[in-house]
Amino acid sequence: MKAESLVVSAAINIGLAILILSLFSILKKLPFYAPVYYARRLSLGHRSDHQSFNFRRLLPELNWISRAVRVTEEEILDSCGLDVLVFVRLFKFGIRFFVVCSIVGVLVLLPLNYTGSTVPNTSSHSMDAFTISNISSGSDRLWVHFSFLCFVSCYGMYLLYKEYNDLLFKRVQQLCNRRSEPDQFTILVREIPLCNEHKTRGCSVDHFFSKHHPYSYESFQILYDGKHLDKLLCQAKSLTKKIEDLRHLSSTKKYSRNSSVSDAWKYDTKMEQLKDMLQTLGCEIRRIQCRMTIEQKELPVAFVTFNSRWGAVLAAQSQQHTNPLLWITEVAPEPRDVIWQNLAIQYRHLPLYRIVIIVAASLLTIFFVIPVTAVQGIAKYDRLKKWFPPAMAVDLIPKLRSIITGYLPSAILNGCIYIVPFAMIGLARLAGYISRSKKDINACNMVFYFLVGNVFFLSLLSGSLLDQIGESFFHPKDIPNRLASAVSAQADFFVTYILTNGLAGFSLEILQPGLLLWDTLKSYTWDHGKKKHPYVYSLPYYRIIPFVALCMLIGIVYAVVSPLLLPFLVGYFLLGYAVFINQDAKKNDELDKKDGLMEENVRKALDAYSPPCLRPLDLGMEGTSSTKPFLSPA
Are 230 and 617 in contact (CB under 8 A)? Predict the structure, then answer.
């Protein structure tokens, strides 16, 4: 890649980032978009800072960056939790690591590489003059590169060790502060056999743990096949939503000048009919919830609660039966993290699910070989002209070649792999994981392996082979040496990839264009005139962490090979940090006993793992039930 192409790529990405960030700074000040940009604040009952309109809000500003940077880790931990803090510290780790590497690489290695060759650089890749390939073979200067490699490795391991200790301390502190969480007292038990005497699994659970854990066992919650109940509950939610919509329309018609009394009466009549249907459906749901009806659909799965954390940990981490496929125990996920429908999948079938998912992810990775190779063909324009002569028409338009070789390959690659995280999270949903956190971790792993295989290794291999494809055919034994000497030529492509993924990608992440379009569409169509609700959602870790990890891998590999890439990575992590900072055991037992909280914590644990289909139902209408509400009233 020519230096001109790299400058064009940087200019385009910087221009797009400035445009998108300016648009964000304007839209975030408009009251209409408060549910998008101030969702967490509104969900907690706070008012938005922007209630009235004035023309100053149409001017872009950058003070949101300074406000975001001033946020402390304690504030993040208190408001968003430890997971978000770890996520933010991933960017801080990248900043600390690559700032030091950039200073040493640019001040020491870059001049060394540029002056390392005694022969003028005649390569078509003019950026090669700043890489290790410009050092003559057998030169003593390579000892400097080796020393820098040792320094980078030791410094990286020191930062990782320090980061691990800090996060471990915060994790222990968090466990001390969350002493009442039910998952600390509960384990998940699978593959429960039938009781020989009563032919029920609930009885078997009680007998087994009363016998083997008599001093710590407290109680259990057997799970049931509630598919039919789930369908009825969905129908009840749908009817409740229709009643709320009709109530809103009826009140609107009553106070509208252009409507008659008969229109409002029609809505009231329809609403009463739906209320009758909802009442009948609620009676049916309560009838099915009766234990005598539902005991016939027991699943071989239960949540078992203990009277101490120590007892729960011992039971979760020890084998309970001589047959390893019976009485399988593990630490219970948080109640809000449980994927209830996946608990109905038999444990022995899970390996088959995982194999199918691995095969599907592998096929997806193989399928993307085509676009990645095509992208490298565009990037290697000089070689492409020899294999595809019509491509020479690009030279007829001034500056077009710089755009095509500098910006287009990375833009096409980022566009193609945009759908990959969504495809992987879809596959992870089919893998049978019992918690959303495990599902997200699995999706993160699959996306990362995909990126390493396709974006990193395949870009190296395809780009290098296209560069020397003729020689490789005639001298196949020299392929490893040729690949090793050609790897540095891919540094310019990875620089443009980091620019596009960082500047344009992070800018679009904070703007949230998809959510803006969805909110605008709803506001002017089916939700017109209704109260807007904030869009509160968790961070899509599977869509962000693998890409950040890939950029770290690229930086570590190319720190010695091409130090010119390191300052771009510093900018990548700085922008990512600003964007995402903006958005959104035995010792504890002794403390609980001392404070008199142990019994209360155990009681909460008993109630927390009740399946959704068995929870008390309130249809949100007066006189229907006195139990805890399941469907919120209008």
Answer: no
Measure Cα distances from 191 to 227, 304, 328 in Å.
Answer: 20, 13, 6
**Residue 176, CA distances (Å) to 74, 180, 263, 580 in order:** 16, 9, 59, 27
Q: How far is CA 345 from CA 223, 325, 350, 428, 614, in A?
A: 12, 14, 7, 15, 19
Q: Which runs of consecutive H residues, i.e. helices, occur in 105-226?
A: 110-114, 142-177, 201-212
**What's 159's DSSP letter?**
H
Q: In what order do the strands lie in the sheet with 186-190?
A: 217-224, 298-306, 186-190, 328-331
Which string of DSSP letters, residue by residue, matches 265-313? HHHHHHHHHHHHHHHHHHHHHHHHHSHHHHGGGEEEEEEEEESSHHHHH
Interval 194-225: pLDDT, tens: 888 878 888 888 889 998 888 888 888 888 87
**Within 10 A of 102 (CB to CB), how many other CB atoms are there?**
22
Residue 366, judged by CB atoms within 10 A of its CB (0-12, 13-18, 19+), counts as exposed
> Three-state SS for 559?
helix
pLDDT higher than 60, residue 535: yes
Q: Which of 264-278, 374-388, 549-563 has the lowest mean pLDDT?
A: 374-388
- Cβ–Cβ under 8 Å, residues 278 and 239: yes
Helices (H), 368-478: 369-379, 381-387, 400-406, 408-416, 420-429, 436-451, 459-467, 469-474
Q: Give per-residue pLDDT as tens, 348-400.
A: 888 899 899 999 988 888 888 888 777 776 766 666 666 666 666 666 666 67
Q: How confident is the model at residue 546 (pLDDT cuts 50, 70, 90)?
A: very high
Contact 495, 570 (CB under 8 A): no
Nearest in space to 222 (alpha carbons), one of 124, 305, 148, 98: 305
Q: Which residues pair with 372 in a beta bridge?
A: none
Helices 586-595, 598-608: axis angle to 10 degrees equals 110
Establish how many alpha carbons lie within 13 A of residue 455's alpha carbon, considering only the half-sphere containing its beta carbon.
32
The tokens for 384 are 């492409």
The residue type found at 553 is L
> Quick one: which H or E segment has residue 613?
none
> Do 446 and 425 meet the contact criterion of CB atoms below 8 Å apart?
no
Tell me phi and psi for residue 333, to 5 degrees.
Answer: -70, 165
Please give the distance of CA 141 from its chain centroid, rounded to a whole number: 43
* Strand-pair partners of 219: 305
Per the CB < 8 A criterion, the answer to whether 174 and 324 are in contact is: no
Beta bridge partners of 435: 338
Residue 277, judged by CB atoms within 10 A of its CB (0-12, 13-18, 19+), counts as middle
Question: What's the half-sphere exposure (Cβ side, CA atoms, 13 Å) at 355?
Answer: 5
Q: What is the pLDDT of residue 633?
A: 30
Amino acid at site 281: L
